[in-house]
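Q: Make up one entry.
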Amino acid sequence: MKKIKVSLLTKVVIAIAGGVLLGQFLPGGIARIFVTFNSLFGNFLSFAIPLIILGLVTPAIGDLGKGAGKLLLITALIAYGSTVFSGFFTFLSGAAIFPRLLPAHAELTAMENPEDFMLTPYFAVNMPPLMDVMTALLLSFTIGLGLSNLAGSTLRDSFADFKAIIVKLIEAVIIPLLPLHIFGIFLNMTVSGQVASIIAMFLKVILVIFVLHVLLLLIQFAIAGAAAGKNPLRLLRNMLPAYATALGTQSSAATIPVTLAQAIKNGVRENIAIFTVPLCATIHLAGSTMKIVACAMAILIMAGEPVTLAGFSGFILMLGITMVAAPGVPGGAIMAALGILQSMLGFNETLQALMIALYIAMDSFGTACNVTGDGAIAIVVDQIAGKSGVR
């Protein structure tokens, strides 16, 4: 009998619904068992975050620089620019929209002082991380840049193995346990009376992000169309098969063959498309960045925390770099971003869990935006390469 595979999104939806439903009548003593699990899992996540950063960011930067040519540098800069633009575009749009959608009276009191409103675990186990998040980031950049300029392969191979361990940790431990963690968070918030505000926020934020990511694609293809002297709407329409495939697979990597074929259909030379599309599937995550910035803004507003351009500017610039290291698994981008959410925006365990749930609820749309935007970058790179004499 063939085993039915349940997607991560489905598991998260079931976890949220189960937490809300059972929170209405489950005895506090039983609910605290799940709260205890949340405490253990949250502490383990705090321990793992620096390791995730070190294991993903270091080899990503090292590999990006390996044999780097002019075209690689150009593509990487365009992809980073697109990702950062997406972040600031989202911030400015969210700053204009979210205060009206998420009024001050909806702030989540339990998030400010959760111990005063929510159930507490039966016991806690302290799991101190080996280093703080900023140290992990700086160490990753330092070693990664060094690897990109080293002729030898011993250290690079060691970090490749370390990356494999981290990816396995994410795939086999963290991602499978996330639904149970999210279930516990929503169970606890139902007990504290905060869940109605959360569900209403989810629906509003998802709608706003969907509209914004359509606008982002229109902007990206307007630029690509101007560069190539072609109709941007026709270029975007040609990329719709890649968009639809990404919606179904939730994977940029799995969509590469379709993205490649549609980029060539848009007039991108085959050798340029073969180079650009797989690279952008790894380093260009404008849609994921949009989701993370919008969700972070919404959650901070709901928590009654200040949301300022000064506070988010550094976060967006760092997020653009961190997205390069995101592993190609569902929810991989948000896992890579947890470190800077914690260190730069002050996200605690509850806020992180809400962030993960809200992000995964829109994972398909973010991936679809990522891969469709890859087609726009391929067009621009093709034009630059042609003017530079690259064939």
Observations:
- The two ends are 52 Å apart (CA to CA).
- Residues 109-116 have pLDDT under 50 and may be disordered.
- Residues 299 and 351 are 7 Å apart (CA to CA).
